[in-house]
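Limitations

Structures in this collection are predictions, not experimental determinations, and the ligand pose is part of the prediction. Treat each record accordingly. The example that follows, with NAP as the small molecule, is included so readers can see exactly what is and is not provided: the inputs are given verbatim, and the output is the predicted complex.
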Amino acid sequence: MLKIALIGYGKMGRMIKQLSEQRKDIEIISIIDPQDVSCFAAINEESLKDVDVAIDFTYPGAIMENIEAVAKLGKNMVVGTTGWYDKIDTVKEIVKQNNIGFIWASNFSIGVNLFFKMMGNASKLINRFDDYDIYGIEMHHNQKKDSPSGTAKTIGDILLKNIDRKTEIVTERLDRQIKPEELHISSVRAGTIPGTHIVGFNSPVDEIQLKHTAKGRAGFANGAITASKWIEGKKGFYSIEDMMKDIIVD
Ligand SMILES: NC(=O)c1ccc[n+]([C@@H]2O[C@H](COP(=O)([O-])OP(=O)(O)OC[C@H]3O[C@@H](n4cnc5c(N)ncnc54)[C@H](OP(=O)(O)O)[C@@H]3O)[C@@H](O)[C@H]2O)c1
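Predicted complex:
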């Protein structure tokens, strides 16, 4: 039984706790959230006692301090919190110095990571067929603060890397004709949409669409749980791509 500490008891922390209650292979033995009186207030020896892996879903302002505190206590860590990627080299150093195992992802959904993989294969094929133009659409709830989504940016990077005739992503409204080398990814914000990403390959005679639709937060939470099991007993710095390579046999 894998013993987990949750750091951050917000929307994601609660979803992981809820899913863990339906499983027999993991147990949440500690929850750390300074604002919640039912939780431990800080990361320390007491709150991480007997913990195998700590899962962090907090916020950018707290994450560096949290990583340092968990690493100093020699515990492995799964980080879903976003907004620290400019400090990736510092984090690699902390992981190395404290000899822990660490895995991060900007999107822990296994489905989205499969979608990235499919996008890689599809874009390599489309690269050989000049008749197809390419576009992307991402849709999210009306509370989302950023656009385009991080997932859409990753999709854009994959498409640009593999399709020679596209050299630039444009995301804003265009008050002019789009250039052939540009690839338009547009954002829609409405209601409670958890997250939908569509990529279209459009030719004069047909259209191929690939679409990922998140039904809620459970996909992220399940992916983070899978990552906590994967990082158990490992040492070193990993991203979800390393885990996906391991679990996809192709
Ligand atoms: N990688 C992925 O797949 C994925 C998926 C979804 C979300 N995320 C990211 O994960 C993060 C959390 O998302 P969320 O939707 O769960 O946000 P949320 O509902 O705001 O939850 C964050 C929780 O962490 C608490 N917290 C803040 N500082 C803390 C600290 N130092 N130690 C422990 N807990 C602390 C917050 O308390 P207060 O509210 O009282 O400050 C809040 O309860 C965000 O960065 C988000 O972008 C990543």
